[in-house]
Amino acid sequence: MNKNDKFYYKKKEETPLIRQYNNIKTKYPDTILLFQVGDFYEIFGEDAIKCSKILNIVLTKRSNTHLAGFPYHSLNNYLPKLIHSGLRVAICDQLEEPIKGNKNIVKRGVVELVTPGTVINDNILQKKSNNFLASIHVGINNLGLSFLDISTGEFFITEDKKNNVLQYLKFFNPSEILFQRKEKKFFDKFLKNKYYTFLMEDWIFNYEFAYEKLISHFKTNSLKGFGIDNLKLGIISSGVILSYLDNTQHFNIKHVSNIQRIKKEEHMWIDDFTFQNLEIFHSLNKEGIPLINILDKTMTSMGSRLLKNWILFPLINIFHIKKRYQIVQELYSNNIIRNFIKKKLKDIYDIERIISKMVIGKISPREIYTLHKSLISIHEIKKKFLSQESKILIELANSFQDCNIISHKIMNTIQHENLPHQIEKGKGNVIIKGFSKELDEIRTLYFSQKKYLEKLCKIEQINTGIKNLKIGYNNIFGYFFEVKNSKKHKVPSHWIQKQTLINSIRYITEKLKNYELQILNAEQKIFFLEKKIFSNLIDQILKYLKHLQKNAKNIAKLDVLCSFSKIALENNYIKPKIDQSSKICIIKGRHPVIERQFISKISYIPNDIILNKSDQQIMIITGPNMSGKSAILRQTAIIILMAHIGSFVPAQYAKIGLIDKIFSRVGATDNISLGESTFMVEMNETASILNNISNRSFIILDEIGRGTSTYDGISIAKSIIEFLHKNSLRPLTLFATHYHELNEMSSLFKRIKNYHISVKKIDDNIIFMRKLMIGGSDHSFGIHVAKISGMPIQIIDRAKEILKILKMKKNKN
Q1: Does residue 5 carry a pLDDT above 60?
Q2: For 740, which DSSP code?
Q3: Torsion of CA 142, 143, 144, 146, to 10 degrees
Q4: pTM beyond cutoff 0.85
Q5: Is residue 440 within a helix (H) or strand (E), and if so which, with residue range?
Q6: Where are the domains of the chain?
Q7: Other CB atoms closer than 10 Å to residue 274's CB: what's the count?
Q8: Is the model more confident about 355 or about 743?
Q9: How many Å apart are CA 411 and CA 407, to the nearest integer?
Q10: What secondary structure, in 3-state letters, does 570-632 show?
Q11: Domain 133-262 is classified in which CATH homologous superfamily?
């Protein structure tokens, strides 16, 4: 801290409180410091200016510096706003109670450092989404990447090329990214201010340091068991994350018990353009519905998070895909089991995040009891599965770990009702009666003393003759006698007056203070014993940490597959066949989102798509705008995606050869902020596809070339189709266009076939039949589309005249 800082106080203006604040602030210069002063958190200087705007609180001045604040008990209301604004927050609490008459400053210290990527607070976290902290290390050719969600314990590591790194960031959507200070310019340009970032010192990015950090944390001799020992850049990035957790005072992280390598070769690759174009997680229109809304019928937060993970990283291992189908089929056909699971899942809480809170030491008695309820439901699911004749259900049952001992410990230790969010607020009623003889004795003494106070009040009523004498309590005076003004003449001389009110006077006595001291001592002993017993309970539960984590994963998986079975039943989905072939055969396929918008399911027109590498590698689909070309392209890609995550699909029949990449170029959007036109965006996305195809790629291209002149557009479109046809990889492709000039390509290339969306013309009107038919279309029906869109009739009539003239000129030429 220096004299130029706005929150700096000149020596002559420093009070002991301000001096203490400045000393602590110097250790957290890039962090908002919430400084507890009595019942308030106070914020000074530039911190106060920032917070007043974000929190909409009053900004004042004291000793020529800005000041803002909010009540201590309102932290959970204000902290989320600061974190969501991308700020780091250090919470500085009073570490002792102020003593009357003692002029020494109260001890204070930072008890928690909260950053966007290290949050465990339920008020800040989104239940259905992970909260990842990311770290990137720059190598010569590749970048090392790590992602950790401290709230669930999930830890991922990989290495990849620069362009792919951006895709990973979009997939994981980290709340905070760590990188090397010397690489700031590179990352400013690379990330384009799209993420909250934090600079780490260069010396931390050291392989030996990171390696030791990891093996020390996981208590192993090497990293070979995790399959990551050859990822030097990734190991450095992972070590940086662990160092950062130390710096932010997150020392208790033993729930981070594994680190997973992201293996591209084990998952289908879908770029960010495709996720956007297919509207997987977000709709392109405000009124639209993304695919996730259709697929996510999960009952738990864990299941919802896992489903997103499955969608981001679809399987390309046929054995594992079919295993998922097997479970979905079982739940699909067994109503009793499916409904039983749904019922039990309602009573299962977020075990992953409960575990992290236990490890970190931020768990409440109420949350521990929800863990008990969750384990009871898991036990009942296991018991039910074991009673079935189904091999797959028995196999699932055996995957659950026995945690009955944990349930019994919780049941026999804490109360079952009215449990507090904090043990401090349990008023001595967290631990059940009979668990601790010592605790029960102190409770008896405590409650008998309170009863004695009531008896004392009655005795003093008789002794003084003050019939309406009352005993009260507040935090300032403790216990006191309250006497109406009209009766003050009856007050004994040894009573000590403490407070005068409008209608009454408050007094204390030596006897009253002695009993108060005994009661307070009993309260402190009760709290101390309850906290000790509760902490011991947590320690005993954590001995079964891996059991709990495995059950959490199994429940999340069961939840997702149960969701798949539910939507399959509701929407008439079928189990697809998936194999190693290079063929796609979808009969009467439907778009899972669009079909839901029809009042009657019969109204939706299904379509067939057949692709192979021998005679129908590329389908050119022509037809007018609004006829349904884009919907057919999207639904085919979505069906393929759904099949690879283990879901049933909207079709009458589907046989899908394994796909390792899905690419799409659908729709046209400007990127004005980067100075890129529609056509530039279109060409960039198409170039990315053509440069990254594989022999198992599936591509959908919609209206390529429309962003430029007609002849340029046709030329580009033809050239792209030729490239895809001649390429030895032969990627399966759907190419939608309104350029009917492309129809001639089917006669020149044997694996290109023409299709069109049928249109029925009645008089001067057209009806879109939305049915895919063999053969090309030689009419775009653009004027008809303009007519039904509401274009003024005089414009439509003039357009027809111009069209006749253009056709006559073309025929003459």
Answers
A1: no
A2: G
A3: -140
A4: yes
A5: helix 437-464
A6: 11-114, 133-262, 296-403+544-569, 437-538, 582-780
A7: 22
A8: 355
A9: 6
A10: HHCCECCEEECCCCEEEEEECCCCHHHHCCCHHHCCCEEEEECCCCCCEEEEECCCCCCHHHH
A11: MutS, connector domain (3.30.420.110)
